[in-house]
Amino acid sequence: MAASSSLFSCSMHMELFSPKISKCPTDFVCCRSKISYMFDTDTLNAIFKVARDMENIERNSPESQILEGYLMSTIFYEPSTRTRHSFESAMRRLGGEVLTTENAREFSSAAKGETLEDTIRTVEGYSDLIVLRHFESGAARRAAAIAGIPIVNAGDGPGQHPTQALLDVYTIEREIGKLDGIKVGLVGDLANGKTVRSLAYLLAKYKDVKIYFVSPDVVKMKDDIKDYLTSKGVDWEESSDLVEVASECDVVYQTRIQKERFGERLDLYEKARGKYIVNQNILKAMQRHAVVMHPLPRLDEITVDVDADPRAAYFRQAKYGLYIRMAILKLLLVGW
Amino acid sequence: MAASSSLFSCSMHMELFSPKISKCPTDFVCCRSKISYMFDTDTLNAIFKVARDMENIERNSPESQILEGYLMSTIFYEPSTRTRHSFESAMRRLGGEVLTTENAREFSSAAKGETLEDTIRTVEGYSDLIVLRHFESGAARRAAAIAGIPIVNAGDGPGQHPTQALLDVYTIEREIGKLDGIKVGLVGDLANGKTVRSLAYLLAKYKDVKIYFVSPDVVKMKDDIKDYLTSKGVDWEESSDLVEVASECDVVYQTRIQKERFGERLDLYEKARGKYIVNQNILKAMQRHAVVMHPLPRLDEITVDVDADPRAAYFRQAKYGLYIRMAILKLLLVGW
Amino acid sequence: MAASSSLFSCSMHMELFSPKISKCPTDFVCCRSKISYMFDTDTLNAIFKVARDMENIERNSPESQILEGYLMSTIFYEPSTRTRHSFESAMRRLGGEVLTTENAREFSSAAKGETLEDTIRTVEGYSDLIVLRHFESGAARRAAAIAGIPIVNAGDGPGQHPTQALLDVYTIEREIGKLDGIKVGLVGDLANGKTVRSLAYLLAKYKDVKIYFVSPDVVKMKDDIKDYLTSKGVDWEESSDLVEVASECDVVYQTRIQKERFGERLDLYEKARGKYIVNQNILKAMQRHAVVMHPLPRLDEITVDVDADPRAAYFRQAKYGLYIRMAILKLLLVGW
Which residues of A touch C59 (CB under 8 A)? Predict the structure, then answer.
């Protein structure tokens, strides 16, 4: 397949999983010497094409059994029921089986200090693929470096959460129908939200993208992303007028202001959280074809009365995540 | 099928599940505008007939695979390993798959306040049916109101636990062979036990039922149920003589005195708990065809030496619960 | 099969599981009046032969489905993610299904005191086999005494952990190719480690075995095992020279010094833990065919640079545990 070769024309840094697996059904997973895939747009498009196939799999069809006989371990060092559910559903929707560990810290506590590496080397004996959530940045890379089976990074601390970024881009493509030429407003906590940082990074792969940053001053987008976008020739601007931005954009991507980032300065938090709310006023300003996205969970930064509007895409976005994860599991275990 | 029409001749209030599902294989699940089923005796009998079929499914028969390709999520906001195990076993005995969440409160804690509604809308994207246990009365109704897939109420706080009530009635029918004309002694904590309250309520649907209440004064059956039984023409009486009641009844339904209801008045608890014990004396008084039931867990309100008597039906009762839950899952996912 | 008869020529005390099951597919599980199996070497060899078959099962082959339609409950009263994962993987690798309870103490807390026996009698209604981990010595025996389905002991407190002992012996047989005439050095915490105690016990079944004990003085092997070995004619000695022992042995079996055993005497712990480390020096002394084993988790009693040596067998040992557990599940559910 043409797209598979592009998997190795690395142009972006986002660790998703380890290609080190014992059998090599396809080129995709055959690159034993590398521990991360670099996504270019051809690769993304190829993955999205597989995800689209996943949307159309019917119950009890042969396609619903393509991962029969495969066993996935979810090893979560910090709980994330939502992400775990999504991966486990994806595995089961393809006929595969799951071993669950919701409290993987117990591995190390029981051991009074077992290393992540030892845990991985034990668990890889029991399963065919590991989905790892860890509290330390770089944990997925460490795991992939010693594992003989694929490691999927389901978020490692302040580091990356690459399947979230993939599903966000896939959602835009499915909802708007294009990525080149897209106008996206990123709203809310842009300083701490890794979702919006990763999304900005991925969008820079596409042509003629325009990005608006709308956030309270205390949680503005950091310079590293701005500089990266500039270096890639991406047009971006900061704005304090959400209504204006909403009227321009194809996508209003709202995020939660994270209270836990404010420590004792609850006054700053209260001031920040109420500043940019997606409500009926914003919907009124938005174009008919535009959508509202949110990585969830949602508090009151999108009012509940928005849910009924067909442009509220955030629950569909969670569902697209299922298809993206089905695609990734399929690609890692049986190839293209 | 004749019975299915009676599902809509609502005469009793017991929320079991949401009929709002996206596909309508049968009449049973087709009633999108309603969010609860009202059980009359025809409906109960029809469900029991399906449960009876479930008892006879053989390992690896085609019937053991009727839910193949279906995925059930158990979302438990408070732990109830017993109930969760029963539902998950039921699903797997029919070839279906399960996604487990034992600590669903984490959904909201991670979210610092995500609503039940948002959790349901996310999880419904991952599965075909949700079994919900919640700490708040009315939670199942709220979930069903927004879900696009069936919600089974596995207990919502001080509210209802409808599958327990169903399995209790099914147990009586299976053990005694009839429900009309039955004599049942309800024993123990009748004030707080939702099991006995729901059972009294359901038994009122049948003819010529006689109910005895035997309980310490501090935990007597409340007037609402007594008034309801009277209004339905059910013969009931209170008694303090368990031996006498045991000799009259087809079913002695014992329950645990719940220590946690007594707060600091442990003296009252100690007095209440020892008052009515099912032991060899009670067995001696009971008729040969009669049985002892208990919703479990059991402490010392039934002595261990009763277990060996064939009239000790409480572990069989737990097993009947499995068949009832198999029947419910089957009806909700593939219809009659 | 010839070996099956030897299952009843009991010569060793190690409770593994209950033979009381409702159906008797083979002699192996038919012995209803006994609650433990006594392993002699013929039995061990027969089990190892089945384990060897398990190593060669291919994905989606008919053999990978021999437990289709069977349901295993894991009831863990204390967490042991590693052991649970191993059993659950074993069950799924044979086509069976799993019900998980990671926090079985909740059974009793919810019940404010439900007995283990009642929990077992409830759960046996939901599944075909129970894997039990408990914090009290003798719990597996109690469970097996009342259960109508097989109970597999996955460790009961300071009592036994028989599948660990089985997999240790299997590992030696697979790595060294023999058990008669073997020389094994047991190193580390020999006073508290039930692994090394059980292993010494099992090795005494074989001919011409030589055992070396190498441990800090505070955690020396206890007299009961030494006396047992002497009574069986097993040659053993204590040594403080790990290099010398390593040069003699086929197997260096290292264990973790358990900090929690030292209470407030952390000075003694620190002195003990550093005394016998398996590192490059030990590897240099070891023969080419010899191996290093460890029950895991490992702290620093084996240095990480040992991992790359082909004689480091501890991760393979974990994998052999999977095959042993597959064999046991197969034997208990469908027989030889």
Answer: 69-70
